[in-house]
Specification:
Lipocalin; mainly beta
């Protein structure tokens, strides 16, 4: 009986190890941004729809892919969001159809995902930092708050405050 239990324990351990190797992004850190998954309509602070956003898992659940489409213009963009196990941070790369890009890094703070960019130069030569915070309000609502700082984070100015409402 002891020999059978030992064999069962060994087989279970080997089986779990094999399963974990097959799905390397199954740890809780990789699931911290899952509250953003789904098909969303996005509204501004005047309760006007400004676009749709589809966030889905890809690459064996290692990457969240965002697909944005503005409601009243041809503007669109895609971001790739992933947990970097080497740095312990979440990273986002945003690329849009205007040739713009944004690199952000950060992580979970309380229940919000907070990602911030490095200092970059604006069109007028002034430097600024981007910070975007996603906060789940419920299962069907996520607030996205985008801020910029011109003084290395001492003060922040809101440039976007939107409410994601889940469609499905």
């Amino acid at each position: 009986m002891k020999k059978q239990l030992l064999i069962l324990l060994i087989l279970t351990t080997v089986s779990f190890y094999s399963w974990a190797q097959s799905f390397p992004c199954c740890t809780p850190e990789y699931r911290q941004f899952d509250f953003w998954l789904g098909l969303w309509e996005v509204y501004d602070t005047n309760d006007q729809i400004i676009g749709r956003n589809h966030i889905k898992l890809m690459q064996d659940s290692c990457v969240l892919q965002e697909n944005w489409q503005a409601a009243k213009s041809p503007y669109s963009g895609t971001s790739y969001n992933y947990y970097n196990k080497i740095t312990g941070n979440w990273e986002q790369l945003w690329i849009d159809n205007q040739g713009q890009h944004l690199n952000l890094t950060g992580g979970l703070s309380s229940e919000s995902m907070v990602l911030q960019g490095a200092r970059r130069e604006g069109r007028k030569g002034n430097e600024y930092i981007n910070r975007i915070t996603w906060t789940p309000q419920s299962y069907k609502i996520v607030q996205q708050h985008w801020e910029i700082s011109y003084d290395d984070g001492d003060t922040w100015k809101t440039i976007f405050d939107g409410e994601y409402r889940k469609v499905q």
